[in-house]
Amino acid sequence: MRTDLPTDDPRLDALEGLDPSTIASALNRAAGEERRAAFRGLPPAKAGKVFGLLEPSSQADVLQALEPETRRAFLDEMEPDDRARLLGRLPEEEAERLLQVLTQEERALTMALLRYPEGSAGRIMTPEFVRLHPAMSVADALAAVRAGERRAETIYFMPVAAEDMRLLGTVDLAALVLADEASTIADLASTDVPAVQATDDQEEVARFMKEADLMVVPVVDEGNRLVGIITFDDAMEVLEFEEGEDFARTGASEPIQRPYLSVSILRLVRSRIVWLSVLAIAATLTVNVLGAFEDTLESVVALALFIPLLIGIGGNTGAQSATTIVRALAVRDVRPRDALKVALREVETGLLMGVAIAIAGYVIVSVFFDGAIALVVAITLVAICGLAALVGSLMPLLARKLSIDPAVFSAPFVTTIVDATGLLIYFMVARAVLGV
What is the reported pTM? Predict the structure, then answer.
């Protein structure tokens, strides 16, 4: 399937023959002016479909190229949750300006979502759904579905609520269609319905929906009153976004939150320079350790040859442990209260790996160097692997306990710490074994 933007046509008319998702994928990767020119060249009917599939950053960009009436039409046609996601990622002044072009009804729906904290379930729920009453007959319910289908985001699962909007259960469309028309919704409703609070963390809600295999989950306020629903596609977008953030931070970088080729060089620099500077400062610990043991290195020059090997193995061991625990935290396999269990498992794992590598290392090193040096390297390998696994496992758990993103304390940061402490262990072992 062709997804690259043609470059021989300034209006990019060749995009007209592609399907909307392919066009949206191409526009997401394009530079700003090229994207705007391409979008202006699309037929109106296709432009609306493409707009709905664009990333929020791309949507904000193409809106600048539209006439006021067209801009208003596109914004009005968006689902309230998609519109809130778009406006929530824009500067406050720009978001306010776009809110003012909406109809009064759509502005009220959007502002209701924007009042919830960023990252909460309320930000990704839709307030447009078909709500059924328990006393309704099946015939009346089907009529309500037909009447509300155009505005509702989904009709496959519908919440059942009392007059005061207290959530009572849910009914799926298949059960409604197959039921006797004289039956009531109370007869069909499933009361064992999982619901989430509007203030719950949206990543936790998304993972819950994935684990429970839920297509729709009702959202309630503190009084158990129905305020919206979250659909599976919106939940998966949250997971994709959060996993992208975690992946970026495991590499000591801030997420760029938009397609790579559409990001300027300066933005790439800004996303990386802060953590790179932090790690550079942290790396001075390694320099200080080397300076403190300068006399030891001068006495036994051969020790210097194994420094890259030891800090490399220690850093990689810590990175493996940290990555494993960050992932386990993300999918809720472990929690901060499991710290002792996790630490014991990881230390045992690290020591076993260290012993295996140390045996092989001792044999190889003793062939070319004195047996005492081989012993120093072997002992250090065992110790550094155990330490690295311990540090790599505990730092993400500590971060979660402190409400910090565990990915921040992942591979690069752990590697830097293990480098310094590993060298300290190495020289202390060398002094004890070699007597220098």
Answer: 0.64
